[in-house]
Amino acid sequence: MKKIFLLLFSVVVLSTSVSAQSKVDLIDTTNYYSFHLNYWLNMHHFLWTEAFLNVKADSSIVTVEFPSIDRSKFDSTLNYYKEVLVGKDLRYNDYMSGFKDWITDPNTSFEAIPAEFAEQMDILINFDPVYQKYFWLDHRAEVMAVFNENIDLIRKTENEFVDRITLLTRHYWQFDPPRVRVDLSYFGKSTTRTFGNNPYTTPFPTHVVMNVAGENEVPGNWLELLYHESAHGLILGNSYFVAGTIKDLGEAENLKLPRNLEHVYLFYFTGYIAKELLEKQGVKYPQMYMEREVYTQYYPLLEKYLKSYIKRKSTLSKATRNFLKELNKGQ
């Protein structure tokens, strides 16, 4: 198998009990975020990622040479993920979202595991000594390194970010709970589009999973993606201002709409704001995420038309009309 990630693993035996590991580890809070590092969620993401890459890309993230007894536990656990869970999307599948919410709930008790999660938890508890011995210390250290690199920037920029993104989307920041929960994980969500590693978010309330494996070599990138993910709840439905404006114009003027255009707008909004905030803090950030990685085909027209809305020199309706008309001309 080819290797997509190169990971170095320590071999350290820990004595942490299952009951201690089941607790959510609150790392820190800011005005608008609470950051958590959950042992079991990290183990779950590691196994799902390895299974996904095995099945979809004939690749692996594991470089460890196990002794036979640990190899047997690893193989049986991975086979369960490949046979039962790899086909379930981490974000959109009801079971996977439910498991994430349950395993990260501070009131979760392993003395009362719901029947629907019992089989998976049996598998994870059996694998627990192997994950601790070979993987956890390195995953935790990498997560904390990325978090510590960004927490000061978050504190210095979050207030202005929330003020500006709620103004652009005409939607309030969530207030129950007032802080967006962010679970920090070494691995996040992989897709067959890139086989990379990405953060993901579930709504109501907004719950962000921020990974550290992947593309974090660009200073500021992690902060931009955090802000993007945490703002998903501001643009979700057609009854919300951004999506509603786009849909209304498309219907009224018979303009073809790109799929998920409100999400494209959110990438531009959050990237534009994050870039300005980072540069205020002395962080050189020459390109926002969408210039480099996603929806790049729309970026020139967004710069031409949507920037005027951000600068409050145009309405969203006018900017969107101009954007869609020029986009439709070229199709």
**Outline type:** globular
- Numbering strands along the chain, what is their spatial order in the largest sheet? 2-3-5-7-6
**Overall pLDDT:** 91
* Strand-residue proportion: 5-15%
The string of secondary-structure elements, in order, is EHEEHEHHHEEEHHHHHH
CA gyration radius, whole angstroms: 21 Å
How many helices does DSSP assign?
A: 11
| Helicity, as a percent range | 40-55%
> Termini distance?
41 Å
**Helix and strand composition category:** alpha/beta
Indicate how many domains the architecture comprises. Answer: 2
* E-strand count: 7
| Main beta sheet strand tally, sense and closure | 5 strands, mixed
Low-confidence stretches: 1-17, 19-23
Organism: Reichenbachiella faecimaris
Protein name: DUF4932 domain-containing protein
Signal peptide: 1-20
Keywords: Signal
What can you see in these coordinates?
This protein is 54% helix and 8% strand. By secondary structure, the protein is an alpha/beta fold. The protein has 2 domains: 24-162 and 172-211, no CATH class; 235-329, no CATH class. The strands form 2 sheets. It has a 5-stranded mixed beta sheet with strand order 2-3-5-7-6, sandwiched between helices. A two-stranded parallel ribbon has the order 1-4. Strand 6 and strand 7 (207-211) form a beta hairpin.
